[in-house]
Amino acid sequence: MSLFAIKSTNIILPDGIAKGLILIENGLIIDVLPFNAIVNCTVEDVGDKIVMAGVVDPHIHINEPGRTDWEGFNTATKAAIAGGLTTLVDMPLNSAPVTTSVSAFKAKLAATKGQLHTNCGFWGGVVPGNTNEIEPLIKMGVLGFKAFLTHSGIDDFPNATEADLRKAMPIIAKYNLPLLVHCELTDDFKVKDQDPVSYAHYLASRPKYWEDQAISLMIALCEEYRCRVHIVHLSSANSIDQIAQAKQKGLPLTVETGQHYLYFNAEDIQNGQTQFKCAPPIREQANNNLLWEALKSGIIDFVATDHSPAPPDLKQLQSGDFTKAWGGISSLQFALPVLWTAAKARNCTVTDMAKWLAKEPAKLIGKSGTKGKIAKGYDADLIVWDAEETFILTEAMIQHKHKVSPYLGQQLYGKIEQTYIAGTLVFNGGNFIALNQGKVILGNG
């Protein structure tokens, strides 16, 4: 691929924002030069638009093979490049077969053929009885593993018990890979006389202590096995202190929260608005303010969408029944503008965005030496965006398969102007320029 350069007065580099020229060749950043450097190649001058490393989202449910009517590689990865997401990592539970064996992983890899518009890696799953598949999956290239401590919503992906985790964690630790955990330890707690359309009742039905007890268990196991543990979609602010203490002890523990926990509050959700249903639930404003403080202080490492789509009928939009609706927020295309809109209102900076959406998630997936930063030798997975431009989200903009999203009608800051995958311009000014440029990302097992 021929040499070219991207020029901007606002490039987010590892040590801050700078004017400069990013020199790109053969899919890599070969140098970052001073703004007025003379170069003998084509220069794409984007003015004062922000140039940032592409968004890395390690929490996406693509659902293929087997549930392509829910999403699929084609629609998910097109939505990704429209939203500036240059690397996704697919969760193991919503495809059929679930990614808990080598044979299932091979089926998933086969399903990507001709359908990857952005880069995509994969998590394996830990379920009862699949301990003997963990090491072979590592050798096949999964980037780590996902386990649920409560019912996943998919019968083929049952929750792991503490005994299951004790078998899996020594193997995962041996390869220094992360174990991602959905932390809710459910018991027989029930809301008395629950009204199925009441959001307050749904919120009460998944209490914070379920999350807090599960996180406590994972911290103890993390310390015992020195296995990297990653808490997905933290929603209970009551766990922030125990997470902070675990990190102070030097445990290999990382944490994400989701855009929806930072953007929405329970007080704003009306009865019957099942497009907001997710698990753990979107909690009250006071709780979510504490999540923001933990993110800004580094106790929470980064933000990931947990894009979990389903056909509209499964969301029970007509009945408004929270007890029957599929739990999942559809949002991957809007990872950056949703977070930026909420962050901007809290005086956060665009450099925070680069940290929370690129640098830190690249560490989780073991690719911090090639992705997540604009630096010499890194992959030229880049986005150009306008931090001040606003838009109102409409169904017509959505590239993922189903147009159901709680963000519809929201006015958002941060418009994606261009997306580059390995130096190839794939999305520009609202148009897809080049498709099928994504690569399968494998680990080093």
TrEMBL record:
Gene Ontology CC terms, in alphabetical order: cytoplasm
Obligatory cofactor(s): Zn(2+)
Record's keyword annotation contains Hydrolase: yes
GO molecular function ontology, one term from the record: zinc ion binding
Organism superkingdom: Bacteria
Protein's UniProt keywords contain Lipid metabolism: no
Domain Amidohydrolase-related: 50-426
Keyword annotations of the record: Hydrolase, Metal-binding, Zinc
EC number: 3.5.2.5
InterPro entries hit by this protein: Allantoinase (IPR017593), Amidohydro-rel (IPR006680), DHOase/Allantoinase_Hydrolase (IPR050138), Dihydroorotase_CS (IPR002195), Metal-dep_hydrolase_composite (IPR011059), Metal_Hydrolase (IPR032466)
Database matches in PROSITE patterns: DIHYDROOROTASE_1
Pathway: Nitrogen metabolism; (S)-allantoin degradation; allantoate from (S)-allantoin: step 1/1
GO biological process: allantoin catabolic process; purine nucleobase catabolic process
Cleaved signal peptide residues: none
Physiological role: Catalyzes the reversible cyclization of carbamoyl aspartate to dihydroorotate.
Subunit note: Homotetramer.
Family: Belongs to the metallo-dependent hydrolases superfamily. DHOase family. Class I DHOase subfamily.
Identification of the protein by name: allantoinase
Organism: Mucilaginibacter paludis DSM 18603
